[in-house]
Design goal:
The structure holds 2 protein chains of 2 kinds.
Chain A (H helix, E strand, L loop, with lengths): L1 E9 L5 E3 L4 E2 L5 E4 L6 H8 L7 E6 L9 H11 E4 L11 H11 L6 H10 L15 H13 L5 E5 L7 H18 L2 E6 L10 E4 L2
Parallel strand pairs in A: 4-8, 4-9, 6-7, 7-8
Antiparallel strand pairs in A: 1-2, 1-3, 1-5
Helix pairs in contact in A: 3-5, 5-6
Chain B lengths: L1 H11 L1 H36 L4 E5 L3 H8 L10 E2 H8 L4 E13 L2 E6 L1 H6 L4 E4 L7 E4 L1 H7 L6 E6 L7 E13 L10 E4 H7 L19 H6 L5 H9 L46 E2 L1 E6 L3 H13 L2 E4 L1 H54 L4 H42 L10 H27 L2 H6 L2
Parallel strand pairs in B: 4-9, 6-8
Antiparallel strand pairs in B: 1-11, 1-12, 2-10, 3-4, 3-7, 3-11, 5-8, 6-9, 7-8
Helix pairs in contact in B: 1-12, 2-11, 2-12, 2-13, 3-11, 11-12, 11-13, 12-13
The chains are: A alpha/beta, B alpha+beta.
Chain lengths: ~210, ~475
């Protein structure tokens, strides 16, 4: 479970973001909405432990990531947080399967090949594992990045604009997938987006202004 | 996994990788080849030097004298009178003086008239047969035996001079009596006979000397007696005024068309061992090509060369000195080539840098992704560094193989043309340094890209897609 408390972040004195408090569990995914420039991505990076907040705190599974050292934070992020980006990015030189395994490798776990295959099958990309990421369609790439984010068994799954470049059908199926998979993996899910189509899928939502 | 990531990244954009490896390969290959060739040449030259402190021969270029008399890879400077040689070899500072007389060659391998002490000096071991005991007996070195497919008992003809197409002395057949073990010394490429043989062949009309026991002194009389007097006068006169490059050829010897080198002559045994032959029986035409001298003490080297050079019409040359001079000269060429090779290596370092740096721009997002998946800064740093190091090591391996291939080719070429064999060479200490240097280049070239990867701002990189 994830909760925030008086969270603020400032890049400089002019741009200060103050975030409303929120709360999220595996059963209750959270939607964070806001137009561009409202600090969505910044918030996502704070949640991911990529940025440290200027004030307030986030607690993820009883841990305050901001209190960790840089090396501990890297490790914490690798083990506990999976991120799905707006546009899927991969190591172009590696195969789809290796790209999925990377998340475990970089988080310091032993790559678990059977588990990676299981997750890939769950996401319907089991037949694409030998391909090069660039050969896949956007929807397929999105699913590969979800598989990659889920493989280390994260406590928190973050999705940054996962639907903005998809059509309505794909938008629905990706949201469905994210919710379903996070439940299966028992991860808390937070989606950050400006996409209006997502609203109807979530009861737990906050809006950034 | 890390190996796969590095390897995949290296082969993903192969052009930059190949360029870097090729450049390194040529740099390393050239340097390593130079090192090995230079080292082997030096070793070989020093090895062949053995116990030769001084070479005495006809006036001319000292280097030529050394190259001809010690290494047998140049034409002799001319001949010296045996009587002149006799005068100096009794000096108490001299421990041993080995006489050499040149005249013919066999399939471009020189035929050298000498005595058993020459074989002893190089520690010759016989594979078959024995040492020469009679005139026209020949002991052949291993390479010569191979080239001529010779076995003991075989007969062969000598060609006058060193060229491949000189006049062939058809009327005299050498008889193989011994074949030497390969020794890696000059012996491998020589045909050895007694000095009387050289003398006999170049005095066509006589072949009457019986045998000539080579080990002992006192054999001189026979050939000396056989040496007829007629050519004597001319020989003497030509000799003293010999210009360095001119060959001294007493009249009987001028018969051959192919003696661009020298027309060596007869030489009865002349030796440091007290000669029973009274000097007055020495015929003026008895000539040697050179004496290889070993001193009892270094004092000899201080005094004798000056005496010989100033008071006789012979010259004395120190092989060690001349060879040092030669290597100094060669050194200039080698230094130049090494400079070029190092420049190539520097460029290859630059190429490693450029290809890593260029790839880094494309891979910024990948690296940020790796960080977001839990990779530490240090890990990314070492990953980029490892790529550069792998590149440079691959280049080194390729260069090492190239150098060994080059040596192999050079060996086949040099063995055929100069009778200089290059040994198969493993990994040398100098190449260890070269490896270290290549490693250093790899590290240096990838350091900046690696630091950039270390400092990467992941939040910014991920947000600015």
């Amino acid at each position: 479970m994830v909760e925030s408390n008086n969270l603020t972040f400032s890049y400089n004195t002019d741009t200060v973001f103050a975030y409303p408090d929120f709360y999220c569990t595996a059963d209750r995914p959270l939607l964070i909405r806001g137009r561009s420039g409202s600090g969505k991505t910044t918030l996502l990076h704070i949640l991911a432990g990529i940025l440290r907040p200027s004030g307030g705190k986030v607690i993820i599974n009883d841990v305050n990531p901001a209190a960790l050292s840089a090396a501990q934070l890297d490790k914490f992020r690798g083990r506990n947080i999976g991120i799905v980006y707006q546009r899927a990015h991969f190591m172009a030189a590696l195969s789809v399967f290796d790209n999925i395994l990377l998340s475990q490798y970089f988080s310091g776990q032993r790559p678990d090949h059977p588990q990676a295959k299981r997750i890939a099958d769950r996401l319907n990309i089991g037949h694409l594992l030998k391909k090069n990421p660039a050969q896949l369609s956007q929807g397929e790439q999105q699913r590969v990045s979800i598989a990659r984010a889920l493989l280390p068994g994260p406590k928190l799954l973050l999705a940054d604009e996962p639907t903005s470049s998809l059509d309505d059908d794909n938008c629905d199926s990706v949201l469905h997938l994210l919710k379903e998979q996070s439940v299966l993996s028992r991860s808390a899910l937070i989606i950050v987006t400006h996409d209006q189509r997502v609203n109807q899928h979530f009861s737990n939502a906050i809006r950034l202004i | 996994m890390i190996i796969r990531i590095i390897f995949r990244n290296l082969v993903y954009k192969p052009l930059g990788t190949i360029l870097s490896i090729l450049l390194l390969m040529f740099g390393v290959g050239i340097i390593s080849m130079l090192l090995v060739v230079y080292r082997q040449a030096e070793d070989k030259f020093n090895n062949d030097l053995k116990d030769i402190d001084l070479v005495v021969g006809a006036k001319g270029s000292p280097l030529q004298l050394v190259l001809s008399a010690v290494y047998h890879i140049d034409a002799p400077t001319g001949n010296i009178l045996r009587s002149d040689a006799e005068k100096i070899i009794h000096d108490p500072l001299i421990e041993q003086a080995i006489p050499l007389a040149y005249g013919d060659s066999y399939k471009t391998y020189p035929i050298v008239g000498t005595d058993s002490s020459f074989l002893k000096m190089y520690g010759a071991a016989f594979r078959q047969g024995n040492i020469f005991s009679k005139t026209l007996d020949a002991v052949v070195g291993s390479n010569v035996a191979l080239a001529g497919n010779l076995k003991p008992g075989d007969l062969f003809l000598g060609t006058h001079g060193m060229g491949a197409r000189g006049h062939v002395h058809k009327e005299f057949q050498y008889k193989v009596v011994g074949i030497l073990q390969p020794s890696g010394s000059v012996l491998d490429n020589l045909v050895l006979t007694n000095i009387a043989t050289v003398w006999t062949i170049h005095h066509h009309h006589h072949d009457n000397d019986g045998d000539d026991d080579d080990n002992t002194a006192g054999t001189a009389p026979t050939p000396a007696g056989a040496a007829t007097t007629p050519p004597a006068a001319s020989s003497v006169t030509t000799k003293s005024a010999t210009p360095p490059s001119a060959s001294i050829t007493p009249s009987p010897l001028t018969t051959s068309p192919g003696h661009a080198t020298t027309g060596p002559t007869i030489t009865p045994r002349s030796h440091a061992v007290p000669d029973t032959t009274p000097t007055d029986t020495v015929k003026p035409e008895d000539e040697l090509t050179a004496l290889l001298i070993k001193f009892r003490s270094p004092m000899g080297l201080m005094t004798l060369p000056r005496i010989i050079n100033e008071t006789t019409n012979m010259q004395a040359a120190s092989p060690a000195l001349e060879i040092n001079r030669l290597f100094d000269l060669m050194g200039i060429g080698i230094t130049t080539m090494q400079a070029i090779a190092f420049a190539i290596m520097l460029i290859s370092g630059l190429s490693v840098f450029i290809s890593l740096y260029g790839r880094l721009q494309e891979r910024k997002y990948e690296l940020a992704l790796a960080r977001s998946m839990g990779s530490s800064r240090l890990r990314l740093f070492s990953m980029v560094l490892a790529e550069g190091v792998c590149l440079s090591l691959a280049g080194f391996m390729a260069g090492f193989l190239l150098s060994r291939l080059g040596l192999h080719l050079l060996d086949s070429y040099a063995a055929g043309n100069y009778h200089i064999g290059l040994q198969k060479q493993g990994f040398t200490a100098e190449e260890g340094w070269l490896l270290l240097m290549t490693f250093g280049i790899g590290v240096t070239a990838s350091l900046i890209p690696a630091i950039k990867a270390f400092r990467l701002n992941i939040s910014k990189t991920l947000a600015h897609d």
